[in-house]
Amino acid sequence: MTAFPPALLETEHEQVVFCHDEPSGLKAVIAIHSTALGPALGGTRFYPYASTADAVDDVLNLSRGMSYKAALAGLDLGGGKAVIIGDPKTLKTETLLRAYGRFVQSLAGRYYTACDVGTYSADMDHIARECDFVTGRTVAHGGAGDSSVLTAYGVFQGMRAAAEATWGEPTLGGRTVGVAGVGKVGHHLVRHLVEDGASVVVTDVWQPALDRVVEEFPQVQVVGSTEELVTAQIDVYAPCALGGAITDAVVETTPAVIVCGAANNQLEHPGIEKALAERGILYAPDYCVNSGGLIQVADELEGFSFERAQQRASGIFETTRAVFAAAREDGVPPAIAADRLAERRMRDVGRLRGIHLT
Q1: Catalytic annotation on 89?
Q2: Is 28 helix (H, G, I), strand (E, B) or coil?
């Protein structure tokens, strides 16, 4: 008998749905953290988790982060996330995606899905054949396309705000930035950094991703591992792969004075935000700076305009500035300041709206 995932016993989430379709091989979990500000929106992650408990832990953390991300970005959306358990390279099929779409449809609009690790806009088109509550679709189907474009743009805006707070100017020109993970988002971020005059050091576990970056930007330096990257002579560390990248060891050993990247849930455990501050490392909260993708797919719900979405994503610069200002005023790390700002909006606006039903 499979053990009940212990995280569910203490969760604050509104709803957690387990999805199983034996003919297609679908095993998925959808988590709705909050609909206080509106329907939950968050991507579907397709990943070979070691256990169901690991998948549950991930989806609970990710969906909670989406609530905070939407609130801090000023969107009238709640937080949700989904994970499909398995290796997308071998398990992903049209049949499985359409079966998953039927489960999303059964939630009647309380949850909107989009792309995440292991899923792409073309996958959203398959899901949309069974479901009305899908964003991040291909441009050919009227969607916003690849949300990593504005995710990277927003991270760059947040990094500019961190540079201003650290060095007095909102530019990475003349600085060295280490980017861990140059797949979807990291690749676009490298382009922004190179164009801004930064020196860039990269690493990735997938060689084709490195090859593509080097082909486009031959001036970029490649190192063999994340461990090597974080201890290199970098000014900024940009984790752009999976979560938990900021560990005690990273805080103790990196020469970087700014941490700002696209990965979700970067802090390995509570308390690291204080250790970062004590070492004089400015942390730009992940869900603050990586909200450009959410802004992009949310815009699709209004009839997508890239120019409008990019303009809204430009606001991440001022939002990050506001987080740093609140942190200084309250004498707390930026991660705590960001949480307080997001929680205030969920509380003040959410009490006017209640739980989103349809």
Answers
A1: no
A2: strand
What's the pLDDT score for residue 350? 78
Please tell me the pTM assigned to this model: 0.90
Same domain, 154 and 191: yes
Tens-place pLDDT, residues 190-235: 999 999 999 999 999 999 999 999 999 999 999 999 999 999 999 9
Residue ranges at the known binding site: 181-186
Domains in the chain: how many in total? Answer: 2
> What residues are designated binding site for NAD(+)?
181-186
CA 81 – CA 61 distance, rounded (Å): 9
In-domain check, residue 159: yes
**For residue 48, how many other CB atoms are within 10 A of its CB?**
15
| Domain enclosing residue 278, as ranges | 148-291+317-344
Kindly name the residue from 27, 69, 81, 92 that is annotated as catalytic: 81
Structure tokens at 212: 């593509």
Cα–Cα distance for residue pair 79/126, rounded to 1 Å: 23
Which whole number is the average pLDDT over 177-184? 95
User: Beta strand pairing status for 78-85 and 26-34?
Assistant: antiparallel
Are 66 and 79 a contacting pair, CB within 8 Å? yes
Average pLDDT over residues 88-99: 98
The reply to whether 351 falls in a domain is no
Q: Is residue 349 part of a domain?
A: no
Q: What was the pLDDT predicted at 144?
A: 87
